[in-house]
Write a structure and sequence with these properties.
The protein is mainly alpha-helical and 97 residues long. It has four helices and no strands. It has a single domain, classed as Type 1 dockerin domain, CATH 1.10.1330.10.
Length: 97
């Protein structure tokens, strides 16, 4: 009986879908892939120009002034190139507080 229970537990464990790690948003990471790259700066430039983009304000407003501007995009690009930059997003998790 114990072997049957063990076999059921093992079978259930092996048939479950693997758990995917959740990436916590990074200030300036527009595509939420875990890295700040030039494409994130381009997404911020598109947002600043009010073009379609994948750059949410909580992630791309890196100077925390309440809007996405060219300044934010430049700071994201500087961060991608490992140059000194502003990185002051208020809350990139999307929560309140």
């Amino acid at each position: 009986m114990l072997r049957i229970a063990f076999a059921i537990v093992v079978a259930a464990t092996l048939t479950c879908a693997p758990v995917r790690a959740q990436i916590i948003p990074i200030c300036g990471d527009a595509n939420n892939d875990g890295d700040i790259e030039e494409s994130d700066g381009i997404a911020a430039l598109r947002a600043a120009a009010e073009l379609p983009t994948t750059c949410p304000i909580a992630v791309c407003d890196v100077n925390a002034d309440g809007r996405i501007s060219v300044t934010d995009a430049v700071n994201i690009l500087r961060n991608a190139l490992v140059l000194p930059s502003v990185d002051a997003c208020k809350d990139v998790t999307g929560g309140t507080g």
